[in-house]
Description:
Elements: H1 2-9, E1 13-15, E2 20-22, E3 31-33, E4 37-45, E5 48-58, E6 64-67, H2 69-82, H3 87-103, H4 114-122, H5 133-146, H6 172-190, H7 197-200, E7 207-208, E8 213-214, H8 221-229
Antiparallel strand pairs: 1-2, 2-3, 4-5, 5-6, 7-8
Helix pairs in contact: 3-4, 5-6, 6-8
Amino acid sequence: xxxxxxxxxxxxxxxxxxxxxxxANGNRRNADVVVASQFRRYYLSIVGLKHHQGICFFDSxxxxxxxxxxxxxxxxxAKHQACSEWFKPMVRILKNMRSKLVEDKMIGTGTAPSxxxxxxxxxxxxxxxGNSYASTFTEAINWIWDADRTKFLCANERFYLxxxxxxxxxxxxxxxAFSRCGCKAVEQLExxxxxxxxxxxxxxxxxxxxSLQPLRPFFSPWHFxxxxxxxxxxxxx
Length: 237
């Protein structure tokens, strides 16, 4: 497969631990290619033998990894709808927080992939979402920190989210570190409550007009309020 990709993309192909990376070139964007085959996990039900269908691939060390991307996508979509479409914007905010943490060397690159961030928020009860970005962020992070994260499930509901020495799970220390940084952001966000309400809802200039996405959070009360309260571009939250 790598030989076939190199035939098409030449030196832009770089094998990674779990995926083959194809570098952007011209109008082509960066891409990750996972070389996988169909995988079935069989179980016995009252009507006989059934299975969950997923994919299987091997990392660079030869460790087999099974996953269920279709179930993950379907469950995340259902979660988004169940919490009045607050789920995906909150995922984006936590991804932005991750980017800032990586930039400040508070966590390592690749230690908080989108798959785990989506899984983290997937476990948050639906009633913690709503009202505003600031309140949803605060409610979600506080719930995550207080909860027993060893009971969290991945969004595909086939595996636990937080486990050590399991390639398909988030290591406990890294999950805790990411959650702790979220709590720190909440503490700083709470300092903004003294800002006049009229300024909290100010919407101009705080979104990236090119990507139509909120700017990355900065860990000061003002900047974090700009991210969470200024609004998701095109939404009126």
